[in-house]
Queue: 2 jobs
Job 1
Amino acid sequence: MKDKDLKPDMRARMAARLAELDRSPITAAANVGLERTYIRDFINGKKASIRSDKHEQVARALDWTVADLLGAGTSPIKVTPGFTAAFAEPSPSTFVPGNQLVGVRDFPIYAAAHGGEGFMIVHTDVMEWVKRPVILEGVPDSYGVLVVGESMVPAYRPGDMALVHPRRPPERDTDVILYDHDPRTGDAKSMIKRLVGFNDRSLKLEQYNPAKTFSEHRADWPICHQVVGMYKGRR
């Protein structure tokens, strides 16, 4: 039976707790054996309530007690008045259809090669020039990268072209491409991952295949560009 006594601020408190932990709702649910979308769907309002037999698992996912989850505990969580949260699907960046390509073929696509498990080597030479996507119209230095490897399947598959906005700052719950040095200065080791959270020293990242979250030192990956879309590869 579903618990009907959940307090109305539970969604906001849970979202604030996840932000405090720098943990995505997908990761939190998976860590305790819940369905991957269970917590996210409740916070987003897709799920009306949390079953009482799931309280303990959800609490553990948030490093809480059940009392904390129900609002009767002692763990302080500061929630901004009117705070709402919308956690995105763990899906690829926007697929760009052909009718959203504009202008001449002035958009560079760079080739990549396998650089070890979960990594790529992005080459400095342009592989091909394609029509510019609308979402990157007027963005200087924007570019695309040919995806290799399967660490981000189903979001990105080998042969897809990731579309990159190099001037957007890092944002939580977005896809990013990281480089070990400025790719304009020579072939660079890189990886495309989901950015779960970050601070001045580290990046918390998520990949989908195999599913895992992990942290990297920002000093090791000083270049972080946001991936804003993709062209699907021919399959």
Job 2
Amino acid sequence: MDVFWTSVQSVLMIVIIIGIGYVANSAGWFNDKFSGALSKIIMRVALPMSIFNAMINNFKPASFSKLGAGVIYVFLAIMIGYVLAWLLVKVLKVPKGRRGLMITGINFANTVFIGMPLNVALFGSLSQPYVLVYYIVNTALLWTFGVWIIASDDPTGKADAKMDWSHLLPVPLWGFIIAIPFVFITPLLNFYNHLPFLSGATLGYKYDPIAHVATQVYTYGTSGVIPAVGALVTPLSLFYIGIMLSNYGLKQMRVDFHTIVVLAGRFIISPIVMVIIVLIGTKVAGVHLDHVFSSTLIIQSATPTFAVMPILATEYHGDVKFATNIVAVASVLFVVVIPVIMILESL
């Protein structure tokens, strides 16, 4: 019950901050360029620093062995989801121009602007590297396999189904890459710790009552540049979601049968697939993920559809209104879906 109540309060915090962004944008406080600038600050500055800081704070060399299992789980979940979505599209005889959008809409998540702040709000910065695991696989498959699916469904037949390799090394991933040598090379980490204006690190002592030995340890606050800027990710991302929801125009949203199918696939089928994979991994393969990691994978599998779907629909002559509607409705519904998932997850 305590876990559930904590989750409810976290979700309420998320909803309130999103609401502030929504109301502020609806009141005309922000101009058209603000959301774009905010997106760049989050993606190119705050998020890489946040990921770097989370790696330094929470990860040791031995921790990396756990991440590999997560990569496999996410890959399997998306591939299984693709097969199920493809079957749905065939059975329902979805018209060309919507098929690729439905398949990708069911399987690919908005990991950064919704998944990351949600996870940090629920589990703290410890979960950021775990979110990054989902983000890496989700991004890699979206901009290769996912783009190919949408392009192949071009109703005009004019588009080349090109895989966009340029998105395989996005800016936030550099926070993870740059952190790796700091995690593995102790002198490098010590050098970083000796720059408190940058790291926010303070030296203290931890006493071992069994060995009767006190060892020096660094603790990280938010006074340094990197942790302070990294801490902006969650509130700014939630503001961004509110602004986007305001821009979509809630009154303009329409829910047709195909939209319902995508939402059911995204919010029901996708997390169920991930739960089954995690259970099989634990019970059959003997791969035990810690609670935060497994919860992160399940929650990320139920986050709303990736935000650039309308852009890809435009690029490959798909149903742009349908794509925009899916993103808007899914982004609104996640506020209802997440408490349900947390209730089930806490049972």
